[in-house]
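Annex B, item 7. Sequence and structure tokens for protein A, then protein B.
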Amino acid sequence: MTTLIKLFVSGFAALMLTSCNFNIQMGQIEGNGNVVTQDLNLDQEFSRVHSSNGWDVILEKGTSPKVIAEVDENLLEYLDVHYEGSTLRIEDNSDEVKKHIEFVKTCFKHDKRIFAACWGLQVAVTAAGGKCRVAPKGAHVGIAYDIELTNEGKKHKLYSSKPHKFTTPAFNYDEVEIPPKNAVLLASNKINKFEALHFTVGNSEIWGLQYHPEIPYDYMIKLIKHRSQRLIDKNVFKNQNEINQHIDSIERAKAELKEDMRIQELKNWLDYLKR
């Protein structure tokens, strides 16, 4: 029996912002021959479509951007759609960014302890009355070098058993410019002054990091490779050779970093939640 799996993408030239992946996990399941059509009703704009596991992508002219799946009915439940990359920037003040900020404000009312990493830190800081900006000293692309703990950071539970100076996975173009009024600076480096903060809002306590202890270097390297042309277009790197040299430096850092030490902040956070 033939299994039909097609995507019809219209209005493609007008689509912008991020890439969209379509995947179907079928194993040994065959289509039942009852072909149905379903509008995927994507709520984000995108510039590229990637597919895997047997999808054919067909581009058609259209007046509005949409993606329609044509698939055997019994395979619909196995269709997975996800977005890679993000163009959300805290200073954009777009409707999508506002939704994130309002969500965090709601969390402040209900959650006593909040762990916020990277974009999470920027949203939490903004929701708490602080301010973020494009980092004037440049971006962290896969790695943040030489983060140093402040005196307060050396005493904080977040950094229990953590070296006072370390290099770690990170990927950010923006940074905290003005932290919330009661924020305590825990860590900094030459790119971002506010690499880690502790602050409170109402009944909530926030541990915030600008970097990513939860993400391994291997993933960051894959992300850099995926975004290579975008990084060149943004003048983050001059050419592919410069990107390759940067990846080599991340590989060296990966070889020096023990997995347990990379995730030490997460372990400390979980220990704190148990109390």
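Protein B:
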Amino acid sequence: MKVELVQLDGRDGDTAYNLERTLEAIHRAAADVDLIVFPETQLMGFPTHDNIAAIAEPLTGPTLAAVAQAVTDKGVAAVVGLAEAGEDGHFYNTTVLITPDGVALKYRKTHLWASDKGIFTAGDRYATALYKGVRVGLLICFDIEFPESARALGQLGAELILVTNGNMDPYGPTHRTAISARAMENQAYAVMVNRVGQGDGNLVFAGGSAVVDPYGQLLCEAGRTACRLQLDLDLALIGQARQDYSYLAERRFELPGKQVEHPDGLRELILTTV
């Protein structure tokens, strides 16, 4: 599977600008790319208390519809973050895997960073789905600092963990360490895509988008400027990493929650407490 990491300098609250950059990146992808990954809240940037109601959209909204059309035209899949207006009246920091067949997987950030709190509501589940025969799961930024987040995806069979990131200085090294650990602990590939440049509130985003193999080894890493990285993932390496020992098989207990298997291949672990 060939993945492309698109590390961009987004604009907070400027959906039109961010969408234009997203569509451009999709249309410019090489013909042999299977999956394009963007940063956290790529489509709207990070909202505030004052603008969240104005910029958040449902998954059926026009911005994600434009992305859906672009991936259909290109014949590729994309992982992209947005500020979601939920059907329940709450707002969520959400990432979706969208393919030419529609939204294959959605994930609402379960571990809210300090600036998320009071704006977003935490999600209540983890999930994995199949894409081109590979079981993939989604996480968002701060989630990867908690081993149980990636382990929940591992418990759901994840072979590829895709992380939309919005990590800022001085915490870049924290996520470099965390993404390697989460891949190794679950003997899965991990792809993390961060934002660069300045954001609201004088934030400076740290870049450092990366791909890590199932042994926890760094395969590629971006710097601190906007860029695109492409890498072919050797999926046979997942089986090799798990051949002699499996951390999942050797674990002493499962994470709590209700595990649900859907007919379309979607697997969910619904949290018993939020």
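Comment on protein B: DSSP finds seven helices and 16 strands in the chain.
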